[in-house]
Amino acid sequence: MFEYTGVDGIMIGRGTFGNPWIFQKIIYYLKTGKKLPQITNKEKLRVIKRHLKLELENKEEITAIREMRKHIAWYTKNMPNSSEFRNEINKIENKNELIKKIEDYFIN
User: In a 3-state reduction of DSSP, which class is residue 35?
Assistant: First the structure.
């Protein structure tokens, strides 16, 4: 759109939900004209666990878990069996159980 219409900027908005890599991808594309490869499940798992850790450091466990469930849903959007996975995690209220379920989903 920069070349086609001459816009000065773009809005990303909801594209960031579950996709914090979008900024890196855009910057890389604007600099090189090439697309970065898709993020691996290993990287997604690493980021989700880090995100959960930060939530738990700043909120009570139950609040952090409940808030993370929506973020995890965004991280797993369009992944295989993600609907069933979301249904399962939306019932979890314990951090160890949530971590186990996330690891099982991303590693298996």
Answer: coil
Of 54, 96, 47, the closest CA to residue 76 belongs to: 47
- Ordered alpha helix ranges (H), the chain: 2-5, 22-32, 41-58, 61-75, 82-89, 95-107
Q: Give the pLDDT score at 1.
A: 75
pLDDT digits (tens, 9 = 90+) for 4-41: 898 888 888 888 999 999 999 999 999 999 999 999 99
Q: Which pair of structure tokens corresponds to residue 103?
A: 């690891």
d(CA 30, CA 33): 6
Measured CA to CA, the distance from residue 77 to residue 16 in angstroms comes to 12
Q: Which residues contact 66 (CB under 8 A, 6 or more apart)?
A: 93
- Asked whether 16 and 25 are in contact (CB, 8 A), the reply is no
Between CA 100 and CA 6 the distance in angstroms is 48
